[in-house]
Amino acid sequence: MTVTTELELQSFVLLRLGERRFAISAKEIAELVAPSRVFRFPHRTPKLEGVILRRGRIVPVCDVSEMLLGKRMTSRRFYLIVVRNYGAHKEWVAIPVTGECELINAEMTAAVESDAPHVAGWLSHDGDVIEVLNIDTLTPGAERALAEAAGRQRPEAQS
Amino acid sequence: MRLAAPAKTTPVKTEQIVLFRVSGQLFAISSASVQEVRSADSLSGAATEISAPGLRKVRHVLRRGDRSLFIVNGAMHFGLHAAEGAQLFVLRKTRTALLIDGIEKMTSMSRLQALPLSFCHEERQWYRGLTALDHTVLPVVHPEGFLSPEELALLDAALLQMDKPASEDPEGTGCAQ
Questions:
Q1: 3-state secondary structure (DSSP) of residue A89
Q2: Fold of A8-158
Q3: Which strands make up the sheet holding B87-91, listed edge to edge?
Q4: CATH number of the domain residue B71 falls in
Q5: A interface with B, Cβ–Cβ below 8 Å
Q6: How far is the C-alpha of A45 from the C-alpha of A95, rounded, in Å?
Q7: A70-110, pLDDT tens digit by residue?
Q8: Which chain B residue has its CA at the smallest distance from A149's CA?
Q9: Which residues does chain A have within 8 Å of residue B126's beta carbon, measured at their own beta carbons?
Q10: pTM of the full predicted structure?
């Protein structure tokens, strides 16, 4: 193996949601934890279920299954805690997953313009082509809320 | 041999809070923000009905001299199942009186964590943050988060309509019902 090839390999965590597998860059993973009690309170942010307590930290739980699979997965085996960037600020977000997670090294093909915003790239593993997820566009944040609001206002502006 | 300097102990700063329920959901508020607690029954006769377009969470106003306190139904504000509300918090330095199910207890919190940035809609105005207490997590409400400046403007306009003598409102467009 040449040095150049080694440099192109990156570590990813493969996660399972129902029948499908997705990948997240290992650099964006904080930990994998067993499901714990979700504390719920009123809010208006879609996809957020509530929060869990993890080592004294309050971590929001974001169910991405509906966005990725088109249906909600009620069963969950683990929470994959990912690091979400908000500008220079980083926060943990817990993503429910339905099966085992696996650490792999693979080469990523960058996403193209026609890919969905939540796709950071693609990788090939075990004969499957797997989406690499972009956590910052997959999970809610002020920039997404602003984009959604702009999307809602656009048709009114045209009329 | 040099001994390690003793670790400085900084006293933990705590804040007195009131835990209260709205439609079964538990919330916390700084006790310093609660000016007065009243029974909802005591409102009969003291409160006047008010109706501002698109603002269903406020149905009554309490007049106190020059001051008007808008009674916000907590369940409707948070989008919870409608509840009548048995008690009322008059919130200090606001024009809000909050209708709640009841007080759970008074306690203190030692740490208020900022609301995670994933929460990015109205809840950022509703809550000062979250606190972990007795193995549970509670939202700590913002006393000024119940009525936005725009909502207050709507309510003030409705009040003005109510105060107009009938002769100035020949079409009967007054808001009081």
A1: strand
A2: OB fold (Dihydrolipoamide Acetyltransferase, E2P) (2.40.50)
A3: B34-39, B87-91, B96-100, B67-73, B58-64, B47-49
A4: 2.40.50.180
A5: 39, 41-45, 48, 51, 53, 56-60, 62, 84, 86, 89, 91, 93, 139-142, 144-145
A6: 15
A7: 988 888 889 999 999 998 899 999 999 998 899 999 999 99
A8: B121
A9: 42-43
A10: 0.84
